[in-house]
């Protein structure tokens, strides 16, 4: 009898000890304003993190080995940037200060998926991933593979000539191989490959459709002149999506549709009402940036964009171009980025609050959007203009891109949410002070206001400072890897 009581007591003791251990989290975010755009939670809560996941969200106190006092700060899902070209560490650092925990190269796609994924494994501050690049596949099939470190080809035969049906089949095969290597979908920059016929584009959509993966694309053309207007370009890809069944994401509607952006959004709205899976995004700046020797600047660009040489500015020097200077740079094989001032503030201000618009940066070194996109939306549209509520803005930066990514990988279901069971990719910022500081003159100035940033539960920014030598970023990969 006594023995069994002893056993019972030891059992109860073990149970109690276990209970205490179970309540001990790796990290507790204490007393922050927790916002989750999916469940509309917006309340002061404590968040317990264990093994890189959000284990508990509670109004009651939680005990943790480490505590982050979050009083007065917003605790939100880390921002997901679907459109980030600068995949280098300096860019990742400024993205972190802008609240971004996942930054993906989806517009064009990395030229070689396996090389891209390998180069970033264990070296990435934030999560990463890529589409399979049609632009690079085309360059390869035309025997003009992209030089290392570039994603856009110089204007020439590989961009401007139509492909034979044999070449189109080889591009399709290249895309399949890239999807097998882990790409999240098919990326296209149709304006950079004007030689691609309508049929070639549809055939690339077909590859995405057969794998049930989405197409991310930069449209064929900009501006109002017909044929070749931005409206026609939206029609082309909506048509391709309807014909093939592939999901479609149209990148930076602001910089392609310019003053017709609201019209373009209404076309997307119409397609969605008819049951098509079409989404879009924008960035909050009046200028774009691209390679000056690309096919985007083939003859006719001034008329299409309604701008002149002086609207092109070199990011490094601030030099406004002249015709003579443009001709030299456009014909050079050396890739040079150029800022393209083609939009108005009124247009940008009208687009950003639209409920169909996700925020995506199109970031790369040289343009302030690389460092400032997300903070700028929070500062300008939530705090100053008040055309967005904080939850609406966060929805555009977290849940909407996560839902888009779910078309590519189930891992995205654990992202973009501040919920129990979700990945602990979390931004903790001061809603009163968060502000972009990057400008066209100083494009790499990091934003202020992000006090902490967790990537898979690992602090990357701690008390407003970058943590050195941590690389918690993981790859997001499509289903091809498991074929
Ligand atoms: Zn683009």
Q: How do you describe this structure in short?
A:
This protein has 483 residues and is an alpha/beta fold.
Structure description:
There is one protein chain. The chain is of the alpha/beta class. Helices cover 34% and strands 22% of the residues. It has 16 helices and 21 strands. Strands 1, 2, 3, 4, 5, 18, 19, 20 and 21 form a 9-stranded mixed beta sheet that branches. A 7-stranded parallel beta sheet has the order 8-9-10-11-12-13-17, sandwiched between helices. α6 runs parallel beside α7, α7 (198-210) crosses α8 (230-244) and α14 runs antiparallel to α15. The longest helix is centred in the N-terminal third of the chain and has 21 residues, at 2-22. The relative contact order is 0.16. The model has no long low-confidence stretch (mean pLDDT 95).
Radius of gyration: 24 Å
User: Which ions and ligands are bound to the chains?
Assistant: zinc ion
Class per helix and strand makeup: alpha/beta
Measured as a percent range, the helix fraction is 25-40%
Give the biggest beta sheet. Answer: 9 strands, mixed
**Total number of beta strands:** 21
Tally the helices.
16
Backbone shape: globular
Residue share in β-strands: 15-25%
Which runs of at least 5 residues are low in confidence (pLDDT < 50)?
Answer: none
Average pLDDT figure: 95
End-to-end separation in angstroms reads 60 Å
């Amino acid at each position: 009898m006594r023995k069994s009581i002893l056993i019972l007591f030891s059992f109860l003791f073990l149970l109690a000890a276990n209970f205490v251990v179970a309540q001990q989290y790796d990290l507790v975010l204490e007393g922050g304003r927790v916002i989750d755009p999916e469940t509309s939670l917006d309340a002061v809560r404590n968040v317990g993190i264990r093994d890189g996941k959000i284990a508990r969200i509670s109004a009651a106190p939680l005990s943790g080995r480490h505590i982050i006092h979050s009083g007065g700060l917003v605790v939100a899902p880390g921002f997901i940037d679907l459109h980030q070209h600068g995949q280098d560490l300096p860019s990742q650092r400024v993205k972190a200060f802008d609240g971004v925990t996942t930054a993906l190269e989806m517009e064009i796609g990395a030229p070689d998926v396996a090389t891209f994924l390998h180069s970033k494994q264990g070296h990435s501050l934030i999560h990463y991933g890529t589409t399979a690049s049609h632009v690079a596949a085309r360059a390869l099939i035309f025997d003009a593979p992209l030089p290392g470190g570039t994603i856009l080809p110089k204007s020439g035969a590989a961009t401007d000539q139509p492909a034979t049906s044999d070449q189109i089949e080889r591009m399709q095969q290249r895309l399949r191989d890239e999807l097998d290597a882990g790409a999240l979908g098919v990326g296209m920059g149709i304006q950079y490959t004007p030689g691609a016929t309508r049929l070639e584009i549809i055939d690339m959509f077909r590859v995405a459709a057969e794998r049930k993966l989405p197409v991310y694309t930069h449209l064929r053309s900009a501006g109002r002149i017909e044929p070749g207007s931005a409206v026609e370009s939206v029609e082309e890809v909506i048509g391709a999506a309807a014909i093939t069944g592939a999901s479609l994401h149209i990148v930076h509607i602001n910089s392609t549709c310019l003053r017709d952006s609201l019209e373009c959004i209404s076309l997307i709205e119409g397609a969605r009402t008819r049951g098509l899976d079409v989404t879009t995004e924008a960035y909050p700046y009046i200028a774009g940036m691209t390679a000056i020797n690309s096919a985007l600047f083939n003859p006719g660009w001034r008329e299409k964009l309604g701008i002149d040489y002086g609207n092109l500015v070199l990011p490094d020097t601030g030099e406004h171009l002249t015709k003579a200077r443009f001709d030299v740079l456009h014909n050079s094989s050396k890739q040079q980025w150029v800022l393209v001032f083609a939009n108005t503030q009124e247009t940008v201000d009208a687009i950003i609050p639209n409920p169909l618009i996700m925020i995506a940066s199109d970031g790369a070194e040289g343009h302030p959007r690389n460092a400032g996109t997300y903070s700028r939306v929070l500062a300008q549209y939530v705090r100053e203009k008040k055309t967005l509520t904080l939850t609406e803005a966060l929805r555009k930066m977290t849940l909407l891109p996560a839902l888009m990514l779910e078309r590519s990988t189930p891992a995205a279901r654990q992202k973009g949410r501040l919920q129990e069971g979700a990945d602990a990719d979390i931004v903790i910022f001061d809603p009163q002070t968060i502000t972009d500081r990057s400008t066209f003159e100083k494009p790499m100035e990091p934003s202020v206001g992000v006090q902490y940033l967790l990537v898979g539960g690992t602090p990357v920014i701690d008390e407003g400072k970058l943590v050195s030598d941590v690389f918690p970023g993981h790859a997001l990969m499509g289903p091809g890897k498991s074929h």
